[in-house]
Amino acid sequence: MQPRQLRWETLAALRTSGKGRLSYCRRWLQDEDILEGCMSPLVLSPYSGWVLDRMVGQSAQEITPSRSSTPKESAPLANRSSSLEKVTPASCRGSSPLSSAEPSETKFRRLDLPGFLRELLILYSVTDFAYMLTTQGNDDLRLLETDQEVFPAVLPSKVAEVEGCIRMYEEMHRLKGKEGLRQRQEQQEQMVRAVYDLASEQLKRFDELKELKQHQEFQDLQEVIEKSSKEAQGQQEKLKEEHRHRAKVLNLKLREAEQQRQRQEELERLRKEEGQERLRRLYSIQEEVLQLNQQIDPNYRHKDLPRIDLSAYSNRGNQICGLVSGLIRTTSERGFPTQVDVANTERALQEMRGLISSMQQEIAAAVEEKRRKDEEEERQKKKELLKKEQMKAQTPAPAQQSGGKQQKEGLQVKAEESTMQWYQQLQDAAEQCIASFSGISNCKDNNEVKKIKTDLQKAATIPVSQISRIAGSQLREIFDKINNLLSGKSVQSGGRTVSVTQHPQGLDFVYYKLAEKFVNQGEEEVASHRDAAFPIAVVASGIWEIHPRVGDLFLAHLHKKCPYSVPFYPALKEGTSMEEYQRMLGYQVKDSKMEEQDHFLKRMSGMIRLYAAIIQLRWPYGNKQGTHPHGLNYGWRWLAQMLNMEPLADVTATLLFDFLEVCGNALMKQYQVQFWKMMLLIREDYFPR
């Protein structure tokens, strides 16, 4: 297909299109300003102001060119007006503000916008098509001019007029929208302001209401607090009054109870004092009866009177002693002796005294008879000696030998009779003490009594065990604890409160165990640490001074474990086994084996050292006006009796050395010259033995 043919087909298609059926004016090609106006950007034409003035002031039909204008200006305007009337449809002209005949209806609010835009579109289509035709050449333009009818030219003033209307319409809508937006903004601001004011007022009312409510609650709370405070104050006053009343009543009751307790304590104290006095009386009677009974013993008295039989007196004396011991044991179990018990023991004492008097009378008669016989025999011997002296001359040598023999025969093997009586009395007192607390020592079924026994034994022995070489200021505390226990006061032992009043036999039990513990400390502690003898001795001496019975029991235990402290050398009697005899000598026998000699001497040394320390020391915080209960005179007597007895190998030398090392200085200060005489005797006469 040739390009020319295609070109004509294109033109035919354009002719049949909507734009092709439009009418064009051939003079439009000569008016280049029209096409320039179509191709140029849309701008307001010089007629915009005029169009606006006319549209506002007059109707569309009154728009005519001014007669006073120049011909050059009126011709294009007329052409443009006629062309516009031809292009625009009748329906559009009827609704357009330019063709309206009513002056009062020229306002923009009555413009037909769709018809106006349609006219404007047609106008732009024509201008575009005309511009295209101009580019196709002059041949096509001439063909177009011959085939199409001529349309009147549209003047640029009309375009400007339409453009002015459009811009005016847009400006009005913009202003109207802006005004509406402003009004709406003002309305919104007014609403926001109103809501803000309303909210502020409501917040103020809420704050005021809240403050009022808080104030009311505070007042109510304050009223409740004041009311409760008044009620509490009243209740407190009432309680104070009740407390004062109760306190007054309790004070009266306490005062009455205290007075009653004091009366009871006074009565109990008087009863105890009377009981203690009667008990001391019983003990003194028993002691006297035992001493009198010792005088009846035929083993130590009147051995040179074989014809006198004192067995009847001895049997009766033993019966009386058993009767008195039974009375004391019964009263100890019951508590304190009564006056009847004291009367019975006094009658027994009178009977014992009568028995001794009868025995002494019988002995005196026998002694007198024996004395007469001895005198006669002595006279006969003297006569014979005189005859022999006359016949033989006396030489000094036999005299010296006789003197040496007398000196050698002067030493004793057995202790003096008074010493043995004293020894026996102490052992009897220990046996009686054991019998007095048999109820507490032999109890096996009663757990409470066993518990009391254990507590009392601990309270008596533990303080003594705490005495050591470095005891120092603790000695006074230990002494006070032991003294309080023996005085009947309560003491603390192992976290428990202990008192001898918990059991009627508690005091005797504590006496016995305390004395035994002192001796055990000498046997064990002093034997290992010799300087421990002095702190133990000073406590034992103080307790002995306040409680003499402890001292007697201490001597009984000491004499039993160390018979050389009497001094006493036990003799082997018929029927006594060797093992038992070794125990009597002080040896420890276990499984039929006797302890070694060194260990034995060490134990004996410890007990003698403790005894030597006790006789020279006194409790420094006690009453020093009285005499020592067992002072240096007993030590001097022991030393003298020891030197009057035959020495034993190892034992005598050890005991003399330990005794003199501990208390030799005290004896020297007390006896002075006599002590040095004793030392000379030991060196010259006793050492060779």
TrEMBL record:
One of its GO terms (molecular function) is phospholipid binding. One of its GO terms (cellular component) is cytoplasm. Gene3D superfamilies: GLE1-like (1.25.40.510). One of its GO terms (biological process) is poly(A)+ mRNA export from nucleus. Residues 367-391 have a biased composition (Basic and acidic residues). Residues 218-277 form a coiled coil. The keyword Coiled coil applies. Keywords: Coiled coil, Cytoplasm, mRNA transport, Nuclear pore complex, Nucleus, Protein transport, Translocation, Transport. Residues 61-72, 93-103 have a biased composition (Polar residues). Residues 61-104, 366-413 are annotated as: Disordered. It is found in: Cytoplasm; Nucleus, Nuclear pore complex. Required for the export of mRNAs containing poly(A) tails from the nucleus into the cytoplasm. May be involved in the terminal step of the mRNA transport through the nuclear pore complex (NPC). PANTHER family: GLE-1-RELATED (PTHR12960), MRNA EXPORT FACTOR GLE1 (PTHR12960:SF0). Belongs to the GLE1 family. This is mRNA export factor GLE1. It comes from Eudyptula minor novaehollandiae. The lineage of its organism: Eukaryota, Metazoa, Chordata, Craniata, Vertebrata.
